[in-house]
Amino acid sequence: MLRLYAVACILGTSEAFTARTLKSGAKRTNAARCTTIMSGLIGFATMSGNTERIAGYIGDATGISPTPIADVSAADLEAADCIICGAPTWNTGADDMRSGTDIDDWLYSELPNADLSGKKVALFGLGDSAGYSGNFCDSVGELYDCFTARGATVVGFTDQDGYDHYDSKAIRDDKFCGLMCDEQNQMDQSEDRATAWVEQLKAEGMPL
Ligand SMILES: Cc1cc2nc3c(=O)[nH]c(=O)nc-3n(C[C@H](O)[C@H](O)[C@H](O)COP(=O)(O)O)c2cc1C
After folding, report:
1. Which value does ipTM take for this structure?
2. Taking phi first (over 0 means left), then psi (-120 to 50 degrees means alpha), and beta for anything else, what does residue 162 get?
3. From ligand 1's centre to the CA of 46, what distance in Å?
4. Where are the beta strands (DSSP E) in 28-176?
């Protein structure tokens, strides 16, 4: 017995002691426990603060602290288990660089360095569905094109119902390719929309 105790001390754990005392053929019942720590990332760009506010609602619902997109590297993206990214639209009618914020450069300088194959990404956008109803949240369509070009799978599509727009470059298969918020005309709906959208993302398999 003394010799067995000495072996356990050398191996350093009481579990080692238990293992050494098991008779041959006996089953170990203390199954190994494994803790998986998921890491999510919310990146956003903003000009006048609205997108940051919605990122905050999403952050509250997920427990993830939003990060300005300029501080997000390709390595950060690759290290994240899930990515949520949002931007406003200021460059009305533009083919690219539609946001008019620092995400425009980031999409074509930093994002192309990331391999996002097999990763789930969700997108959100801010716009004015009455004042710019022909270009509502156009930048989200550009985010969609840039993220899918890196191999990401975009989840969290939403219905177009309930907004005043008549067109948007963020429409894919008759749906918005993410969550759209309108702080000019529908500010009172944004928080509930964000909270419900996070539940949708979870139901669609985002590890949140
Ligand atoms: C000059 C100007 C251009 C805009 N162009 C668009 C547009 O093309 N599409 C749209 O949906 N919203 C447009 N907007 C509305 C902004 O996207 C909206 O105010 C948004 O909430 C701003 O978000 P931010 O505060 O995060 O920058 C425009 C606003 C201004 C003042």
Report:
1. 1.00
2. left
3. 10
4. 40-44, 67-68, 82-88, 120-126, 153-155, 171-172, 175-176
Residue 87 CB less than 6 A away from ligand 1: no
Pocket perturbation via mutation, ligand 1, pick of 52, 132, 142 by most ligand atoms within 8 A of CB: 132
pLDDT of 58-114, one tens digit each? 999 999 999 999 999 999 999 999 999 999 999 999 999 999 999 999 999 999 999
What is residue 144's three-state secondary structure?
helix
The CATH architecture that domain 40-203 belongs to is 3-Layer(aba) Sandwich (3.40)
Q: Which two tokens stand for residue 206?
A: 């985002």
Please report where in the chains the tokens 């994240």 appear, as a residue. 80
What are the pLDDT digits (tens) for 9-20?
333 333 333 333
Q: Is the CB of 127 under 6 A from ligand 1?
A: yes
CATH 3.40.50.360 domain position(s) in the chain: 40-203
Q: Which residues of 137-153 are buried (b: 16+ CB within 10 A; e: fewer)?
A: bbbbbbbbebbeebebe
Angle, helix 187-203 to helix 50-62, in steps of 10 degrees: 40
- Counting Cα atoms < 13 Å in the Cβ hemisphere of 168 gives 36
Compute, in degrees rounded to 10, the torsion defined by CA atoms 184, 189, 192, 194: -30
168 lines ligand 1 (CB under 6 A): no
Alpha carbon dihedral 141, 145, 148, 153, in 10-degree steps, equals: 10
